[in-house]
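4.2 Preliminary Data

To establish feasibility before requesting continued support, the project team ran the inverse folding procedure on a target of 223 residues. The structure was first converted into the token representation described in Section 3, and no sequence information of any kind was made available to the design step. The complete token record follows.
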């Protein structure tokens, strides 16, 4: 009997995405631990735009905390930010271009301790002053990931790719990714990948359903 394909996310997923799907089974096994740091944003400068490239950073704040002008790399990062400015292509490179086009002189970049350098490189090259605030830390967990019965893997951050590599590897499974940073890390680890159309977990699931419509998962056999 053929089985429903099973995709495993290596990042935390919202509960509403873990419900039963007609075409695919979705589960998650977070391999990264995110910890909010102790900080007080009351006296942070709200006369300059704040910039976010991570939902882990933006979720550290309440709606009332944000200044009037905020930039976010994509809808997932901007989910709790009122009227965020988002580039048409959801990458840090295009976010930097949007900030440059809007002739900003100074911004506050709010991020985690393992942030990547794409945004800063673009802004520094344009001589835009960047104040950096680190609001969360991330670390790779040491855990055994059971990939038996898993037909595909999904990654929503470069850290999750590194995490699985350190905890047993990819088991030759098809890999789905969100965003260019995660894509680059998978390529660096020697993995072929399928990139989602949008920067969302929902888009990865849709892409996986499309993939398995043409690629049958491993068949179950009776022992």
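Position-by-position output of the design step:
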């Amino acid at each position: 009997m053929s089985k429903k394909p099973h995709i495993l996310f290596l990042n935390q997923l919202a509960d509403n995405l873990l419900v039963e799907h007609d075409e695919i089974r979705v589960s998650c096994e977070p391999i990264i631990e995110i910890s909010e740091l102790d900080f007080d944003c009351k006296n942070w400068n709200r006369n300059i735009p704040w910039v976010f490239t991570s939902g882990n950073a933006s979720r550290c704040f309440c709606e009332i905390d944000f200044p009037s002008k905020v930039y976010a790399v994509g809808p997932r990062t901007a989910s709790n930010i009122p009227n965020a400015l988002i580039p048409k292509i959801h990458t840090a490179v295009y976010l930097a271009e949007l900030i440059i086009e809007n002739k900003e002189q100074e911004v506050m970049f709010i991020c985690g301790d393992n942030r990547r350098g794409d945004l800063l490189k673009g802004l520094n090259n344009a001589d835009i002053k960047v104040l950096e605030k680190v609001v969360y830390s991330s670390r790779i967990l040491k855990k055994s990931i059971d990939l038996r019965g898993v037909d595909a893997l999904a990654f929503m951050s470069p850290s999750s790719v590194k995490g699985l590599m350190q905890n047993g590897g990819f088991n030759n499974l098809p890999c789905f990714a969100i965003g260019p940073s995660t894509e680059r890390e998978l390529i660096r680890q020697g993995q072929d990948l399928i990139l989602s159309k949008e920067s969302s977990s929902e888009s990865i699931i849709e892409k996986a359903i499309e993939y398995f419509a043409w690629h049958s998962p491993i068949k179950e056999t009776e022992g």
